Amino acid sequence: MEANHEDSCKALPELLSSFVDTFVDFSVSGGLFLPASPTSPSPPTRYPTPSRLIAIGDLHGDLEKSKQAFRLAGLIDAADRWSGGSSTVVQVGDVFDRGGDELKILYILEKLKREAAKSGGNLITMNGNHEIMNVEGDFRFATRLGFKEFEDWAFWYQMGNKMKTLCAGLPNPKDIFEGIPRAFHGVKTDALNGIRARIAALRPGGPVSTKFLTNNLTVVVAGDSVFVHGGLLPQHVDYGLERMNKEVRDWISGSMGRSAPSYCKGRDAVVWLRKYSEEVASKCDCSTLEHVLATIPGARRMIMGHTIQEGGINAICENRAVRIDVGMSHGCGNGLPEVLEINGNSQEVRILTSNPLYYKNKDSYKSGIEDSGSRLPQVVEVKA
């Protein structure tokens, strides 16, 4: 009995730490309990052909529109629990900026990842240019509500750290603001706390970037579909898809300095490229796309976000470049949610949409987007 008592006492620090982390998560996420996380290696770059593959575009801080997109594909139920079974889902990045629910989206994506894994499904999250920008401390597109959300996070996170100091068996937590200036030139006092909190959370090795972004991928190959936020050029493939994923992951985790890898910066970066996403199809570089796909074994198409398609999800270059950013966020066009669905070995590719215009006047709707890429076949409507 005495030995059991000693074992229980030894476990108390770990139990307290786990309780505090759960308390902080619940407070920051708006009331979510994250399921237990299975210990697993970093996600791979390449996946076998899934029986059902769903692609979801840019979310930009809009929690409700994010949920609508998942519901379009039957991936979550009325209580926001995973209902997608064995589906594989790829969200192509840009959770950050232009809205005030960035952390809440990160939490629900993490919850759904864990729930999907228990059901034989898979939710893959990716880095967009706005993830890279925020980890580097570039907050040009963050909103007032976005800064406030991170300021609230810092309050709860610091409270959790204070609770942990009450237990002698736990090491003293690190000051999350260590190394961050207390003032910035030209920054008003009322904005300072939100900026400092955002830096603390998202800088390389920061608590939020480590918790949520280190398992993001920058390039994904699922069956015959290549996913990337902006686009791939021949030099990116030559450099190595797995190599890029590992280096970006290492940078976010804090082991490669403050600056993002060079292939994540500039107009030709994997997260910034628009060569295949121009709204006018004739401006897109189909020859380069063909070359890139030919150098990735088994690749049939490239699926991208980043550039808003006002006519909805569409494809160019003989359906080999699929553009899925519909600007659904209130802060980014307030478009109607759409997602891409690929069933089986690309036998059925279709758009799931909540846009009633397509159904009320299909012919005129099609003619209005002919110059900006063709709608993929077998379009169906599923109400959000």
TrEMBL record:
InterPro entries: Calcineurin-like_PHP, Metallo-depent_PP-like, MPP_Shelphs. Residues 52-174 form the Calcineurin-like phosphoesterase domain. CDD domains: MPP_Shelphs. One of its GO terms (molecular function) is hydrolase activity. It comes from the Eukaryota. This is Calcineurin-like phosphoesterase domain-containing protein.
